[in-house]
Amino acid sequence: MFFQDVTPDTSGYMIAGFVISFVVMGLYVASMYLRARSLRQDQSLLEEMDKEAKPAAEPKRPASPGPLGEKKYTPVTKKSTQK
Amino acid sequence: MESKPLTLKILDVVAILVLIAATYMALNAPTERVMGEVQKVFYFHIGTAWTALLGFILAGLFSVVYLVTKDLKWDRYQVAAIEVSLVFFLITIVLGSIWARPAWNTWWTWDPRLTTAAVTELIYVAYFMLRQGIDDPDRRARFGAVYALVGGLSAPITFFAIRLFRTIHPVVIGGSNAEAEGGFSMSADMRTAFFFALFAFTIIFIDLFWNRIRLGDLQDKVEQLKLKVTM
Question: Distance (Å) from the C-alpha of residue A34 to the closest C-alpha of chain B?
């Protein structure tokens, strides 16, 4: 290289270098996008599962008396059945 | 994931624009007489190397903060910095190899700089492989912090390798290594393209780093939800 008269044609290497740089960066951005999308899907699924699991875990209670004066709920016990 | 903040959206656009501008400036910079067009990959080579090594050092600092505070937020910052740096450093190594083929007549040689760079890359590949093997988040974060702290030492070693050892890798900035083959002095236009590439890759790094932190936050949320649902 030190005693050469003309500049060598190394444009092929240069193009390869830039192409590889863009491909690697593009792949990384795509991987981040895909990971985020998959995580968002997981998140919505898990939130749904969590919502479904909550009412099943809580004991069933009728609604408290409303403003129109519905009958107040009294739990069924041994005493109430004897009456 | 919460919707993207406006600042990040703007940063995304700016990152794309500066990448296009840096490519344009690199392609239109004067052609180096001895090496020809391939010398133009140097702008991206240094730009990615600078940000990657900075990211590894940053990850080491986040490790210290995590070990002191035990706040998992710092673990997510550390992972984000290492992941983006790993990608950038891969580009640095590949570009260096592409440049070396016409300049040194070989794709790879076990020169101190190339060896330390390869070792640094492998250290952080191993970091992710080892993290995968630990389920407990606190243990994983503690392990990651100590590993990143020790691994962070490889960044300055890689940087100073060409200044401390006899090597064929040129020292273009701040040094004249007579032994180096492929060294060159920059003209004013070359210097403009070079400094703009440094600026552009710093912006791109910040943008990717921020996006990766948000991904880490989402990962953490999903992990918490999984635990909540299974318990």
Answer: 11
Interface of A with B in 21-80 (CB under 8 A): 21, 24-25, 28-29, 32, 35-36, 39-40, 42-43, 46-47, 49-50, 53
Q: Check CB contact under 8 Å for A39 and B1.
A: yes
Contact state of A17 with B44 under an 8 Å Cβ cutoff: yes
pTM of structure: 0.84
A6 part of contact set with chain B, CB < 8 Å: no
Of A13, A21, A43, nearest to B222 by CB-CB distance is: A43
C-alpha torsion sign, points B32, B34, B35, B36: positive
With a pLDDT cut of 90, the percent of chain B lying above it is 69
Q: What is residue A12's three-state secondary structure?
A: helix
Which residue of B lies nearest to A5 if distances are taken between CA atoms? B34
| Per-residue model confidence as pLDDT tens for chain A (83 residues) | 556 678 888 899 999 999 999 999 999 999 999 999 999 999 999 999 888 887 766 655 555 554 554 444 455 544 544 54
**What ipTM does the predicted assembly reach?**
0.91
> Which residues from chain A sit within 8 angstroms of residue B91, using beta carbons?
20-21, 24-25
Per-residue HEC secondary structure of chain B comes to CCCCCHHHHHHHHHHHHHHHHHHHHHHHCCCECCCEHHHHHHHHHHHHHHHHHHHHHHHHHHHHHHHHHCCHHHHHHHHHHHHHHHHHHHHHHHHHHHHHHHHHCCCCCCCHHHHHHHHHHHHHHHHHHHHHCCCCHHHHHHHHHHHHHHHCCHHHHHHHHHHHCCCCCCCCCCCCCCCCCCCCCCCHHHHHHHHHHHHHHHHHHHHHHHHHHHHHHHHHHHHHHHHHHHC
Identify the CA nearest to B25 among candidates B10, B13, B42, B9: B42
